[in-house]
Design goal:
Domain HTH asnC-type: 6-67
Keywords: DNA-binding, Transcription, Transcription regulation
Number of strands: 4
CATH class of the largest domain: Alpha Beta
Pfam families: AsnC_trans_reg (PF01037), HTH_AsnC-type (PF13404)
CATH topology of the largest domain: Alpha-Beta Plaits
Strand order of the largest sheet: 2-3-1-4
Protein name: Lrp/AsnC family transcriptional regulator
GO cellular component, one term: cytosol
Number of helices: 5
Helix content: 25-40%
Length: 155
């Protein structure tokens, strides 16, 4: 399913679900002004088409003890495809790594990491970077205040 296949009803459904995915089908149908069977069919179609990847709960990091956010730039020594994929698999296995991006130009990767505190970050850095022979450079930035956090994509 492609973005250009979405009509106004689909877009309204997506906007509401991105704000609160806990609505029942009947509530969602009422909010977008369609019948419940139509709403259910459209949501199912968007799920099967990959437009809706998954529905999750967004947890407050501070309230579960993950108070430190780090944005980490990684540069590898060797950027061959298999070495890049190997690094991605290595960091993907770490629960504290919330996001991993290959980027260009500049570093090879940017990671978003959420941990309890600085000792937890140091332990993570040792596990992920210090023991890897292909990691050339690590540069970390630590968030002092989060002024915006959004998961919603404008559709």
């Amino acid at each position: 399913m492609l973005a250009n296949e979405l009509d106004d009803v689909d877009r309204r459904i997506l906007n509401i679900l991105q704000l609160d995915a806990s609505h029942t089908n009947a509530e969602l149908a009422e909010l977008v002004h369609v019948s419940p069977p139509t709403c259910l069919r459209r949501v199912k179609y968007m799920n099967e088409g990959g437009i809706i990847e998954r529905q999750v709960a967004i947890v407050s990091p501070e309230k579960v003890g993950a108070r430190l956010t780090a944005i980490v730039e990684i540069t590898l020594d060797v950027q061959a495809a298999e070495r890049m994929a190997e690094f991605e698999q290595h960091v993907a296995a770490e629960a504290a790594v919330l996001q991993c991006y290959r980027v260009a130009p500049g570093p090879d990767f940017v990671l978003i990491v959420q941990v309890a505190d600085m000792p937890a970050y140091h332990a993570l850095a040792h596990r992920l970077f210090a023991t890897r022979t292909n990691v050339r450079n690590v540069k970390a930035y630590f968030s002092t205040f989060r002024s915006k956090f959004e998961t919603r994509i404008a559709v």
